[in-house]
Amino acid sequence: MIVVTGGSGFIGSHICNLLSEQGHSVRIVDIAPPPMGVKAEFVRASVLDAARMQRLVAGAEAIVHLAALVDVNASMADPFSDFSVNAGGTLNVLEAARHAGVEKIAYASSAAVYGNPVEMPVNEEHQTAPLSPYGASKLTAERYVLLYNSLYKMKNTALRLFNVYGKGQSAHSPYSGVITKFSDALSQGRQPIIYGNGKQTRDFVHIDDVANAFSLALDSSGNSEALNIGSGKETSVIELLKTMCAISGKPFDPQFLPSREGEIERSVADYSEAREKLGYYPKMDLEQGLKELLA
After folding, report:
1. What total number of domains does the chain contain?
2. Is 17 in the same domain as 27?
3. Is the same domain home to 189 and 55?
4. 222 Ramachandran zone, left/alpha/beta (phi>0; psi -120 to 50)
């Protein structure tokens, strides 16, 4: 059995389905139920409940730890809650695993740990300088996850996810990226909103590639350093929207609004370490992924 905390979310539900297809039994631990059709046992519980977490992971062969607060703006308004769930909740999961004899955790970290990149592409040796309590809490949790490898001989892996997109991502979720918001606007005949001049860039990685990265992490014997998971391709927001309009046959007519404070200008992952350590490489081309999403 593999336990997936936060398995009801966008990324989690895809990981659960992949693990199930691979023949694993899966237990979701989440405060909300998963979407219809997700092949997993569901247990409603919080990672803040340390005693219950230990009972729920007992007998598991591994854990995928995704449960987190992911709203950057909310983290700025309430840093304590963000830290409690993202760092404290992760420590609860680690301790539950340690006491239950579960040796392996695949943890969802974030490219937010880098802050505003100063070198491109971003590799794992790039300085970590989070711009929000969210990024700081993910970095703290990531370091605990890797510390347990050396302290308690665990086989954990931390994956720094870049901009994940794909089917099933809600446009109303705080985690939603620009692709989901553009898709929602185009489908409803609204003007897509671009903040700033649209020249800011991102590394968009398809959810299938991300789910595969977690599967590979579970098959590994652990990694002492965090690993980037991205596409390795840099795409500007304005070029992204032009591509989406061309695919959907909609006119390119964005509404430009002022830049948001603290927004990162450029981002693209160097995933060569994940390729070497896990055998990871992205298979889904952005245009093909957008065609599937917009179909």
Report:
1. 2
2. yes
3. no
4. left
